[in-house]
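To: structure desk
From: M.T.
Subject: fold request, one chain
Message: Could you run this one when you get a chance? Sequence is below, nothing fancy, just the single chain.
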Amino acid sequence: MPGELLLIRGETDGTSTTGTVPLYSDVFYSTVTYIRMPKGMAAKIWFKKISGEGETLFTLQYTRDVTASSPIWVNVEAEKLSAKGELEYDKRRPVILRSINGTEAFQIIWSQPSAVKAYIELGVEFE
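Reply: Done. Structure tokens follow.
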């Protein structure tokens, strides 16, 4: 059973066909391009909502060392919006991303055949 969920939101810029989603939340001071997890903690992604004006592929990526000059991002999972509309994914078993040494992080990237506005919302629990 999840504890307190942090709602993290992001959107595409509507002018590019690929990019990293700028993420924001009511507890962030400004937008971020990735979320770094403190040492020994885990991020549990319980749900995802995506919507948009057209086809969009959102991909969750994870790196073991965000402090590297060129971090190696690994695709964890992807969700595709096939056309204009909205999708919601609620997980009985969350996606768990662990931090062992405090340099691990995750980000969301997007890809579209033509540039349109699209949105993503994540329900993330940190423990």
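Reply (cont.): The chain has no helices and ten strands. Let me know if you need anything else for the meeting.
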